[in-house]
Request: fold
Amino acid sequence: MAIRALFFPITREKTRIAKATKNASGDNEGGMVVEEEVDDSEDILADMSDALPRFKPVVLAALARDADAYDSVASGKLDDDELLLAGEITILKEVGSLIPSWDITMMNAMMECLMKTGIISSMAITKWALSEHGNDDGSSNGNICNSWWKYVSLAFRNTIRDACSRFEDSKTDVGFGIGMIVDNEGQNDVDPAETAAQGLDEALKSAIPILKYVTDRVCQVIVASTAEKKIPLDSADLSEGMKCLMRALLFHFNSLVLDDSGVLSISNIQKGFASMDANGEKLGLQCQAAMSSSEGEQGKRLLQSLSLSLEKML
Reply:
């Protein structure tokens, strides 16, 4: 209810556009064209981007209340983190039902704003995009979001950016969130390579859990396909989307972690993935392991192709 109330301007605009479309097509009663006054000064995207940070306490309070209500009737079934994540995914489902499917700009902007304000986590975006929790009809795989990898790419960018920001803040934090001014003369004692490597390590620790989850989830859905002759579109979308996501992930590391000093290079990033068992070879092995459980021949072919692509890309 809190999300519906907060996103009411978008719902109102969706209704207005639907009426305008019906009016323009002459489908209204009597075939009469009804002129509707529109406030040209209103900017829904700007208004919503401003409202979300201001109403963050309301949304979080409602989320906590729902978690307490669930925990009181199903105590012990889910821990606090799982309850919070489930609540965040519910918020995303509600937002996805309120924003028109054709308004990609609005959807991307709202996802970005929800993550920046700390209402939604990057993992929640990822699980929502890949429909881990299924649909209301009980289907296990759910409906994978159109362009799912673009939403996961946003999640990667957000979590890497936050990790870099936290690392920068920690260098000047003397405790209890109190920062201090660093004397420039002391910078000569700091090894730039070591500092850069530490920042990269923090970024990797934040991104790799999402990467491993995505790989597992993609394999899980492809494995369930029983197609023998024709490649199913949803499985092909997951396979190709995974390749696009890997390119996006490397781009985010290159743009957010590497700097112009040349201290770090793309090879350092690749070595970092390897040190955490998340390089192309390890991810490829996940795909190959899933092949033995594939129910259809086309699923096996897609997993084999994805395995080879991941090995080459990372």
The radius of gyration is 23 Å. DSSP finds 13 helices and no strands in the chain. Residues 1-26+43-104 form one domain. The mean pLDDT is 84.
